[in-house]
Amino acid sequence: MVPYVPLWRRIRQDILDRIDAGLLKPGDKLPTTRELADQYDTSGVTVRKAIEILIEAGVLEGRQGIGVFVVEGSSRRA
């Protein structure tokens, strides 16, 4: 049986995978919380949890009123 993985962890992993694959590059802006919530069919709270963890890990950078961006040198640090 495959262990349950919370959706916020799957979102976090998907963002990391996109960075590693070069689909998200340093300086790229992520979609809005609402757009990501729609994409993953979940709530903004779940998306924000994944994003906040990646910000704390230094993979993403939040800029108040502007958005969330991929940090230079981001990789599997989270």
From TrEMBL:
PROSITE patterns in UniProt: HTH_GNTR
Keyword 4Fe-4S carried by entry: no
Family annotation (InterPro entries): Bact_HTH_transcr_reg, Tscrpt_reg_HTH_GntR, WH-like_DNA-bd_sf, WH_DNA-bd_sf
Classification via Pfam families: GntR
GO biological process, any: negative regulation of DNA-templated transcription
GO molecular function: DNA binding; DNA-binding transcription factor activity
Domain HTH gntR-type residue range list: 5-73
SUPFAM superfamilies per UniProt: Winged helix' DNA-binding domain
Record's signal peptide: none
Top-level taxonomic group: Bacteria
Keyword list, A-Z: DNA-binding, Transcription, Transcription regulation
Protein name: Regulatory protein, gntR family
Source organism (scientific name): Micromonospora matsumotoense
